[in-house]
Amino acid sequence: MVNLIIVKIGGNAISKLNSEFFEQLRQWRQAGKKVLLIHGGGPQISKLSAQLAIPTHKKNGIRITDARTLALTKMVLLGNTQPALLMRLAHEGLAAIGLNASDQQLLTGTYVDQDTYGAVGSITGVNELALSKILNGQIGVLAPLALTPTGDWLNVNADTAAADIARVLKASQLYLLTDVPGVLKDGKVISAMIPQDIPHLIEEKVITDGMQPKLSAAAKAVHAGVHAVCITDQLTHPGTTLKTEAND
């Protein structure tokens, strides 16, 4: 999709968004860019799970999602984090709309590995026509949930969802906002990377835990034609930029 910028915002990052973030969104909209925000909610899901005595299990940085965890995830994403982000945007005078997979079948998906992860999925299809029309006049705020063709809900890692959607829609830019300024090595941000760097950095334990699915998703996005993926804690800070060699 021409002029599409996708920004993934982690659950922790929503409460820390500053005026620079909203000003950047405003500038993009004024320049005619389409903006889609994909919001997470991992910390909030973990907190509510603990309060309800629902065990949290993760494997390879992915939340194992049984029926109770799926119901809780939907409740947090659609009833807590999405409204919180929409309120911030409204307060800043930015027109925005909350979206989920059931709106005009925006997102379809498939199970990643049902035996291992339960109701965890990846995005296989996006209703591009409907989404393009929605984004013409406002910022989209989309939850990382998908529906199978038979109507089963899937929990999708927000980084993976953002990268999958960027890949399917051929977005021009993808930002993965997190609570760290980028990929850190010896306390310093690695400013630029190519996908081939990732296995070595995992082996060296530079890339661990939650950063692994981020970079795996980012690598797939750049291979599929997204010009650049930026991992940062602020839109106005360069952070770590992942590109293919051909784009350098």
Give a brief description.
The chain is of the alpha/beta class. The chain has helices at 11-14, 19-30, 42-51, 67-91, 114-117, 128-137, 158-169, 198-203, 211-223, and strands spanning 4-9, 34-39, 58-59, 62-63, 96-99, 107-111, 121-126, 139-142, 145-147, 153-155, 173-177, 184-185, 188-189, 192-193, 228-232, 240-242. The chain is built from nine helices and 16 strands.
Features:
248 residues, alpha/beta, eight-stranded mixed β-sheet, two-stranded antiparallel sheet, 9 helices, 39% helix, 24% strand
Structural class: alpha/beta
The radius of gyration over CA amounts to 17 Å
Distance between the termini: 22 Å
Strand content: 15-25%
The biggest beta sheet is recorded as:
8 strands, mixed
H and E string? EHHEHEEHEEHEHEEEHEEEEHHEE
User: In order across it, which strands form the biggest sheet?
Assistant: 5-8-2-1-11-15-16-14
Low-pLDDT runs of 5+ residues are: none
> What is the number of E strands?
16
Mean model confidence by pLDDT: 92
User: Given the structure, what is the number of helices?
Assistant: 9
Helix amount, in percent? 25-40%
Work out the oligomeric state of the chains in this entry: single chain
Tell me, what's the shape? globular
